[in-house]
Amino acid sequence: MDESIYYKRTIVKELVPSQVLDAPRSVRVYLPPGYQELMSYPVIYCQDGEQFFNFGRIATQMNRLIYDEGVDPAIIVGVDVDTATRTSEYAPEGSRFAAYCRFFTQELLPYVEQKYPVRTRAQERILAGDSLGGTVSLHIALDYPHLFTNVISLSGAFLELSRARAAEETDLSWLRLFMLIGLDEREVSTGRGTFDFVEANRLTKRLLEARNCRLTYVEKPGKHLWGFWQTELPAAIKHFLS
User: Fold this and answer.
1) Taking Cα atoms as reference points, which of 141, 119, 128 lies closest to residue 58?
2) Where would I find the H helices in the chain?
3) Chain segment 76-128, per-residue pLDDT in tens
4) What is the CA radius of gyration of the chain?
5) Which domain range does residue 125 map to?
């Protein structure tokens, strides 16, 4: 197959109004090959939208999966974030965390669903995030299970507050989670300090399994970098769309 078709991507930029946040939020929307408004599509909502598209190459990866592996076409919504406020929006102790989660569930979803033919069942929405993006994705699913039941976490920053939040639940059999962690992530430097992400993910894995989460857990050599996540992203997408 001519590989140039993988790079023919339709990506629409949108500005989502928000009364919850202090400014509109830019998002980018990938429309799959053969996109038709009369059809309906599962949808992947990505934190760190710009990075998922630029460094994760998620649009190209999705094209390849659709053309080569028969994966169901999906719409992808990448929600951009300002690096200056990222921690405050994505970390559960952050000053903007509650507002961001409200924006995501109360403003972003209705906006996307009004403009695009995305499916609206929780089972056909997927949340995706790397590092703290994985954190906020899990918290949104736990707090809004009627909206989201599927999460892709690429080296999620599942520190003490996130583990405590998961421990509050008694039955997570409704939650499908794909967790990836790199074995070279023993000392990850973040704006909140240096952490052992391998241990944090292993502890979270045990908590989730004890609550019957439908967990796919992948541990392999890799660093806390997009170079690692990009190569593993197709398997995560296939897990939910095949």
Assistant:
1) 128
2) 49-54, 58-69, 86-90, 97-102, 109-115, 132-143, 160-167, 197-210, 226-241
3) 999 999 999 999 999 999 999 999 999 999 999 999 999 999 999 999 999 99
4) 17
5) 3-156+175-181+218-241
The Cα–Cα gap between 184 and 125 comes to 31
Q: Where are the beta strands (DSSP E) in 142-224?
A: 150-154, 176-182, 188-190, 193-195, 214-220
Domain membership of residue 105 (yes or no) is yes
pTM: 0.96
Residue 187 in any domain: the answer is no
To which H or E segment does residue 33 belong?
none
Torsion sign (Cα): 140, 142, 147, 151:
positive
Rounded to 10 deg, the angle between the 132-143 and 160-167 helix axes is 20
**206 within some domain:** no
CATH of the domain at 7: 3.40.50.1820
Look at residue 93 and give its three-state secondary structure: coil
Domain presence at residue 186: no
Dihedral sign (CA 85, 133, 169, 220): negative
Burial bucket for residue 33 (CB in 10 Å: 0-12, 13-18, 19+): middle
103 Cβ neighbours under 8 A, 6+ residues apart? 18, 20, 21, 25
pLDDT tens sequence across 125-184: 999 999 999 999 999 999 999 999 999 999 999 999 999 999 999 999 999 999 999 999
Could you tell me if 67 and 36 are in contact, meaning their C-beta atoms sit under 8 angstroms apart?
A: no
Q: 33-62: per-residue pLDDT in tens? A: 999 999 999 999 999 999 999 999 999 999
Look at the chain and report how many structural domains it folds into. Answer: 1
